[in-house]
C-alpha cells in the first residue's frame, strides 16, 4: 500500500482508484484461491475415480484397498473445500461459480460413482449437498448448485460406460446387482452349447428386467431417461452444457450396448479374457 | 415409471425440474426488465450522440432531452433492484451487468457534458461522477461487500468509465470540426487523469484488462488532436476561455 502513495500524485482520481485496487485485489485473490482449489479437487476426484474403476462388482461395500487408497484424496478434497468455503459465502456464494464448477462437477462424478458402486443407486441432490457440506464444514458450507449436480451425473455416465466395458472385457459379463449372483453366465464352458445360448438370450433383453437384478446398462438407460426428460431453461448456460454432455452420454450408452451386442453374438465363440471390440476402441482400456 | 427401489428416484428429478423451472421463471421476469432498461439506454445514447454535432452553447437542449431517457432508465432500475435482490446477486448478475454498464455510461457522459444538476448548482462540464454519485442517481447501493443485494459494482463503473473515454476521444475531434478548440484541451486533461488512475489498478488477464489496454491509444488520439491545435496556435489561452464564458 505505502509504496504507491506518491505514484500518481497528479491524478485527481488517484485516491478513488486506490480504493478500487484494494477491492479488486481482494476479489482476484479470492478468485485465484477458488481456481486453485477447484483444480486440486478435480485432480483428487479423478484419482478416486481411477481406483474405483479397478472394481468389478456393484452393490457391495468398497474393498479395503480402494477405501485406503482413496482416503488421501478425499482428505485433499475436504481440505480444499474447507479452505475456500469462506470465499464462497454471503454475497460471494455464486460469484465464483464458473471457477468452482469444474471441481464441483468432478467431485460429483466421484461421489455418484462411488455411491453407485456401493449402493447401485443414484445419489440424490439433497444427499450430495449434505456430503459437500460435511466436507466443507457445516458452519459455512460450500453450496452445491443443481447445475453442478446434474452435470456431474452426466459425466458419471461416462464412468459407468468405462466400468461396464472393462468388466465385460475382463470377466465376460455385464456387471449387475447382487441378488441373483449365482446365475452368472459362464462364458468359458463350451461343452454345453444350449446353456450358453440361454445366457445369451436373457443378456440383452431389457423388458424382462423387472424380477432380475438390474445391470449397469439398465441403470445407465434409466439415468439417461431422466436426464433426457430434464428441461433446462432456454438459452441458459445449463441448457448449453446439457446439450453437449447429453451427446456424450448417448454415445456412452450406445458403446455399452454395442459391447454387449458383440459379447452376445461372439461371446460363446471367444475364450475368456478376450476383449470384445478391443480393436475398435483401444482408448477404453483401463488407464493407470 | 421407474420403481422406487430402482436406480433413480423419479420424485427427486421432478423436484430438480421444479427448481430449474423456478429459476427459468425468475430469469424471464428479469429479462423483461433488462430489455426495458436496454431500450432506455439506447434512447439516451441516441440523444447524447447529438453532442458530437451540437456546439456547446446549444448543448442544453440535448442534455435536457437526454434527461428524460436517463430518468426512464432509473425508474426501470428501481423496479429491477428489489426483484433482483430477492435472489443471490451473483447468480443472475450476468443478465443485467452489460445494461447497467450502459446505463452508467449514459449518465457519466451526460454529466460530463454538464447535464447533472446537483443541489441546484450550475452543472460543471468535464466532471466524472463518482460511483457513489451514480448510486445516488440510480437509487441503488454501490460496491456492496457485506450484503447480498442488487448494486452497482466497481467493474461496471470502470467499464462505463472506459466507454466514456472512448466517447470523449470522438468528441475531441468533432469539437474541432465544430470550431470548438477549447474542449479538446479539457478532454485531454480528463482522459490523462483517468488513465493515470487506471494505471493504479493491478489488472489480471480479463475483460477489464483488455479494455484498459486499449485506453492508451485513446489517450494518444486526444493528444494528437491537441498537438494539431497547438501546432497551429489554435489552443485558446487560459484567460480567453474564461472571458468567453
Automatic annotation (TrEMBL), chain A:
CC terms in the record's Gene Ontology section: cytoplasm; nucleus
CDD domains recorded: TRAX (cd14820)
Predominant location: cytoplasm
Annotated spans, Disordered: 173-216, 268-288
Basic and acidic residues: compositionally biased ranges: 175-200
A molecular-function term among this protein's GO annotations: sequence-specific DNA binding
Cellular location(s): Cytoplasm; Nucleus
Record keywords: Cytoplasm, Nucleus
Sequence similarity: Belongs to the translin family.
Protein name: Translin
Biological classification of the source: Eukaryota, Fungi, Dikarya, Ascomycota, Pezizomycotina
From TrEMBL, chain B:
Transit peptide recorded as keyword: no
Membrane-spanning parts: none
Molecular function (Gene Ontology), one example: single-stranded DNA binding
SUPFAM superfamilies: Translin
Gene Ontology cellular component list: cytoplasm; nucleus
InterPro entries to which the protein is assigned, alphabetical: Translin (IPR033956), Translin_C (IPR016069), Translin_fam (IPR002848), Translin_N (IPR016068), Translin_sf (IPR036081)
A Gene Ontology BP annotation from the UniProt entry: RNA metabolic process
Keyword RNA-binding found: yes
Keywords recorded for this protein, A-Z: Cytoplasm, DNA-binding, Nucleus, RNA-binding
Compartments where found: Cytoplasm; Nucleus
Similarity field: Belongs to the translin family.
Protein name: Translin
Amino acid at each position: 500500500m505505502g509504496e504507491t502513495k506518491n505514484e500518481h500524485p497528479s491524478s485527481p482520481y488517484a485516491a478513488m482508484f486506490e480504493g478500487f485496487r484494494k477491492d479488486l485485489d481482494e476479489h482476484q485473490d479470492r478468485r485465484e484461491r477458488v481456481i486453485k482449489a477447484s483444480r486440486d479437487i478435480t485432480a483428487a476426484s479423478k484419482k478416486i475415480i481411477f481406483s474405483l474403476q479397478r472394481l468389478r462388482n456393484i452393490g457391495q461395500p468398497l474393498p479395503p484397498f480402494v477405501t485406503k487408497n482413496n482416503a488421501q484424496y478425499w482428505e485433499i478434497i475436504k481440505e480444499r473445500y474447507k479452505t475456500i468455503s469462506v470465499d464462497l459465502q454471503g454475497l460471494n456464494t455464486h460469484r465464483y461459480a464458473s471457477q468452482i464448477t469444474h471441481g464441483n462437477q468432478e467431485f460429483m462424478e466421484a461421489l455418484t460413482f462411488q455411491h453407485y458402486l456401493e449402493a447401485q443407486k443414484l445419489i440424490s441432490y439433497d444427499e450430495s449437498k449434505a456430503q459437500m457440506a460435511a466436507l466443507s464444514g457445516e458452519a459455512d458450507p460450500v453450496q452445491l448448485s443443481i447445475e453442478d449436480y446434474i452435470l456431474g451425473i452426466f459425466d458419471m455416465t461416462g464412468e459407468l460406460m468405462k466400468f461396464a466395458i472393462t468388466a465385460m472385457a475382463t470377466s465376460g459379463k455385464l456387471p449387475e446387482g447382487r441378488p441373483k449372483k449365482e446365475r452368472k453366465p459362464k462364458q468359458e464352458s463350451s461343452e454345453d452349447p444350449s446353456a450358453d445360448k440361454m445366457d445369451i438370450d436373457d443378456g440383452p433383453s431389457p423388458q424382462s428386467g423387472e424380477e432380475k437384478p438390474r445391470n449397469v446398462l439398465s441403470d445407465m438407460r434409466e439415468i439417461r431417461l431422466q436426464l433426457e426428460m430434464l428441461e433446462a431453461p432456454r438459452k441458459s448456460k445449463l441448457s448449453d452444457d446439457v446439450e453437449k454432455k447429453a451427446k456424450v452420454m448417448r454415445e456412452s450408452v450406445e458403446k455399452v450396448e454395442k459391447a454387449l451386442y458383440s459379447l452376445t453374438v461372439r461371446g460363446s465363440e471367444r475364450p475368456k479374457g478376450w476383449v470384445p471390440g478391443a480393436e475398435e476402441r483401444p482408448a477404453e482400456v483401463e488407464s493407470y | 415409471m421407474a420403481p422406487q427401489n430402482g436406480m433413480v428416484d423419479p420424485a427427486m428429478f421432478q423436484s430438480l425440474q421444479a427448481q430449474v423451472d423456478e429459476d427459468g421463471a425468475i430469469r424471464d421476469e428479469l429479462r423483461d426488465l433488462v430489455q426495458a432498461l436496454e431500450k432506455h439506454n439506447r434512447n439516451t445514447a441516441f440523444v447524447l450522440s447529438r453532442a458530437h454535432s451540437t456546439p456547446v452553447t446549444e448543448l442544453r437542449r440535448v442534455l435536457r432531452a437526454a434527461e428524460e431517457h436517463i430518468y426512464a432508465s432509473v425508474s426501470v432500475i428501481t423496479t429491477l433492484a428489489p426483484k433482483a435482490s430477492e435472489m443471490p446477486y451473483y447468480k443472475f448478475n450476468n443478465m443485467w451487468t452489460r445494461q447497467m454498464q450502459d446505463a452508467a455510461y449514459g449518465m457519466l457522459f451526460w454529466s460530463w457534458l454538464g447535464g447533472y444538476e446537483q443541489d441546484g448548482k450550475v452543472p460543471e462540464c468535464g466532471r466524472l461522477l463518482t460511483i457513489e454519485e451514480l448510486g445516488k442517481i440510480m437509487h441503488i447501493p454501490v460496491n456492496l461487500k457485506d450484503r447480498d443485494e442488487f448494486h452497482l459494482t466497481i467493474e461496471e463503473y470502470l467499464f462505463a468509465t472506459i466507454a466514456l473515454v472512448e466517447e470523449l476521444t470522438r468528441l475531441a475531434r468533432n469539437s474541432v470540426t465544430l470550431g470548438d478548440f477549447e474542449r479538446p484541451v479539457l478532454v485531454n486533461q480528463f482522459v490523462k487523469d483517468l488513465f493515470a488512475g487506471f494505471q493504479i489498478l493491478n489488472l489480471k488477464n480479463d475483460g477489464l484488462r483488455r479494455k484498459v489496454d486499449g485506453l492508451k491509444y485513446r489517450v494518444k488520439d486526444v493528444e494528437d488532436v491537441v498537438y494539431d491545435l497547438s501546432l497551429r496556435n489554435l489552443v485558446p489561452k487560459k484567460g480567453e476561455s474564461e472571458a468567453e464564458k
